[in-house]
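ARCHIVE RECORD
Type: protein–small molecule complex
Small molecule: calcium ion
Source of inputs: curated submission
Record status: active
Notes field left blank by submitter.
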Amino acid sequence: MEGHLAKLLTSVAAALLTLIVPLQPLHAEMLEVEVSFVKADTNGDLYLSKSEFLTFAIMQFDMTDGNGDGIIQKEEVGELASGEEFKDNDSDGDGALSLDEVVTEKLRDFNHADANRDGKLSLIEVLETYQRQASAEPEDGQNRPMETPADSGR
Ligand SMILES: [Ca+2]
Ligand SMILES: [Ca+2]
Ligand SMILES: [Ca+2]
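STRUCTURE (tokenized, with ligand):
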């Protein structure tokens, strides 16, 4: 009897593991987004107002601006500087980000993410935006169609 139960539990655990494990990388990133959301939501109403959103963006800017000159240089973001987002934000193309450029871009992000146009972002809106961005980025070997040689022999 006990042996049977143990066996059953082991197989349930194994089944759960196979369910959970493939989801982990995305889930961990989603958790990070949630943590940022909670940090940015300073009045705790579970919505990000435009000012909460921008305050958080400015705080991140200050943290990234290692030498404190009010400009984010390529060297301060490392390999992120070659990413699309950096080029996107760098509207005058000088290879560095001013606070103005970042705030302008963040405002655009905000309006983009505010799906129901109520002037604030819910966690759902933020997560959905994040998921859209994540799935829009091509990842090596993920979206390529599988090459299966035709084999009608057996
Ligand atoms: Ca809030
Ligand atoms: Ca700097
Ligand atoms: Ca909204």
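CURATOR ANNOTATION: The mean pLDDT is 83.
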